[in-house]
Amino acid sequence: MTAATANIALEVITERRARLDVVRTDTFGVTRHADGQVYQLGLHTAPLYQLVQPLSPDDRWVIEPKSSGALLPQAPSADSSSTRELSDYARWAAGSRAEHAQALLHALPAGSYWLLRCARPTQVVPQMLMGNELVAATPNIQLLRDEPPVYSCVIGPHLALAPDLNQPLLAVVILNYVGASWLHCACFFQFVSPEPAAGGAQRDAVLILPREGELVIDNLGFFSAENELESRRRWREDLAVEFALWCSGEQRDA
Q1: CB atoms within 10 A of CB 45
Q2: DSSP state, residue 158
Q3: I need a labelling partner for 127 at 20 to 30 A (CA). Which of 9, 137, 155, 193 fits?
Q4: What burial letters (b/e) apply to 190-205, b meaning 16+ CB within 10 Å?
Q5: How would you write the pLDDT of the chain (254 residues) with one tens digit per residue?
Q6: Are 136 and 60 in contact (CB under 8 A)?
Q7: Contacts of 59 (CB under 8 A, 6+ apart)
């Protein structure tokens, strides 16, 4: 089934996977500094996270919350289009940890995304891979996957607190994460105020994985426009599909 308006189209593919295509440009997303090495992520007026790309692509990325950043509310502003756009999402997400907190779906920048119900647990680990360097993990970071070709973690906005998983979690994808094509990264971020009574650890999380758009960054993009186009094509058509299926626990032909 498909729900569509002029701005957003949601196609439910299976009970665990859906496609979301967004054509609007809004007030939320990635702002890239003029030097090209620093990315601000979140509301353009109060970004919640900062990503610093290393000058050398095989060095360390710095990914950290900003104390001045603003969380989104749990629900979008009430209007007639909100109900139409997200009614299929509410049915698809029923019983998950993210039945509510739909403001994030309304804020997404233009692009194409996988929506995924994921039963795989996150892990608290002593170290996280940040680019090509292992660093001590702070409490706001948990590991989702530690194997090629996609490394994945979940990051929350408060260094001393675990990320809230009872809401849709939105990824920034960093292609060629370690300065080479064998490993990429999907960092899922918390953007919505927590709801203490929501969800439960036994329920599926909901992940939003960009296929294309401004939330896909190429760590090697400075070196070759042609190679960047190929990296983005490979992600969109191949690697994003495989990782989405891993998250949802489905087979390729599902």
Answers
A1: 9
A2: S
A3: 193
A4: bbbebbeebbeeebbb
A5: 444 444 888 999 999 999 999 987 678 999 988 777 899 999 999 999 999 999 898 899 999 999 999 999 877 655 535 455 678 898 999 999 998 767 898 899 999 999 999 999 999 999 999 999 999 999 999 999 999 999 999 999 999 999 999 999 999 999 999 999 999 999 999 999 987 655 566 799 999 999 999 999 999 988 888 999 999 999 999 999 999 999 999 987 64
A6: no
A7: 131, 132, 133, 179
